[in-house]
Design brief:
single chain, 316 residues, mainly alpha, 2% strand, 70% helix, cell cycle, two-stranded antiparallel ribbon
Length: 316
């Protein structure tokens, strides 16, 4: 426990220092946020806020992982998923914000990259950590169902879905960071391997440090670089710990955000352009209802804490 606390403290300090260095570089490079015209009017004042700030906690995560986390296949999976999905987000951000191409990666390019990366991760797990892919732990039970090779496409679906769901959650100052912190705390508590416990601790500290700059009013946004990396880290920890199905509970906020978009699109297409929500992802619906950003973030974080506690009960 003392080692974990020391690593959390060091990662937190490193992330705070990196923020002081990297944010001015992003600002001076004019790598600023573009605001959706159809979005809440209150977001217009955020135009130009430095983004791609996910590199702040990703650098500290990489440094601290290489120094403190024993190298194993578990560690490699954690790094590959986190930085692989983060790299896809980085390319998307770079094309939009640096090369000034409004669409960034096309939907087809993004899904091809995600499918390729998730297949490699699932295949490595199947070869070197067979149980993490072939056996499904059912929440609230001690039952594990053997699904054999069918675990590969299922885990690929979960990986892609989680990374994109976390990406959708990153729409308000501090939202993605705040709702993810209880998730990583849960992983720290439940992890049985040194690698998973230390990596979750490092991610927790990185997000705590980043939240200092990302909370309302945000000095920097994480961009797809950070949000997709968080998704990769969450799903890799769940895979290592054989807890993929628990993400429906633990990542309930991510599920709600992605689900709101799916329901909105389905309703628009199937019900003659009728919408269920004022705007999606669902956090924007609450904004348009008149709730202020800090209250929405606080509410979503409280829900994330409740879901984390339910997950702990489901895993005992």
């Amino acid at each position: 426990m003392k080692d974990i606390l020391r690593i959390i403290l060091l990662t937190l300090i490193l992330t705070l220092i990196l923020g002081r260095i990297i944010i001015p570089i992003l600002r001076n490079s004019h790598i600023g946020q573009n605001i959706r015209e159809e979005g809440p009017k209150s977001h217009y004042e955020k135009a130009g806020t430095p983004t791609m700030g996910g590199i702040i906690f990703l650098i500290s995560t990489l440094v601290m992982t290489l120094i403190f986390v024993p190298f194993s296949m578990k560690t490699f999976i954690l790094l590959l998923a986190t930085f692989g999905f983060g790299a896809i987000g980085f390319v998307d951000d770079f094309r939009k914000l640096v090369l000034k191409r409004s669409l960034g990666l096309t939907a087809k390019q993004k899904i091809v990259l995600q499918v390729g990366l998730s297949f490699v991760i699932a295949l490595l797990c199947f070869i070197f950590q067979n149980d993490t892919i072939t056996k499904l732990w059912i929440p609230f039970t001690h039952t594990r169902i053997n699904i054999s090779i069918f675990g590969i496409p299922l885990m690929m679906f979960i990986m892609i879905g989680t990374s994109n769901a976390v990406n959708l959650t990153d729409g308000l100052d501090g939202l993605s960071s705040s709702v993810s912190i209880p998730v990583f705390i849960s992983f720290i508590i439940l992890a049985t391997s040194v690698e998973d416990k230390l990596f979750a601790s490092i991610m927790l500290a990185g997000l705590l440090g980043f939240l200092f700059y990302n909370s309302n009013p945000a000095s920097v946004f994480m961009g797809d670089t950070g949000s997709m990396a968080i998704g990769g880290a969450v799903v890799a920890l769940a895979l290592n710990m054989e807890m993929a199905l628990f993400l429906v509970i633990l990542g309930g906020i991510y599920v709600a955000e992605a689900g709101s978009v799916i329901l909105q699109v389905g309703s628009y297409k199937l019900r003659n352009k009728k919408r269920i929500f004022l705007m999606t992802p669902i956090h924007h619906h609450f904004e348009l209802k008149g709730y202020k950003e800090p209250k929405i973030v606080t509410g979503f974080t409280i829900v994330s804490v409740i879901l984390s506690l339910i997950t702990l009960l489901a895993a005992i």
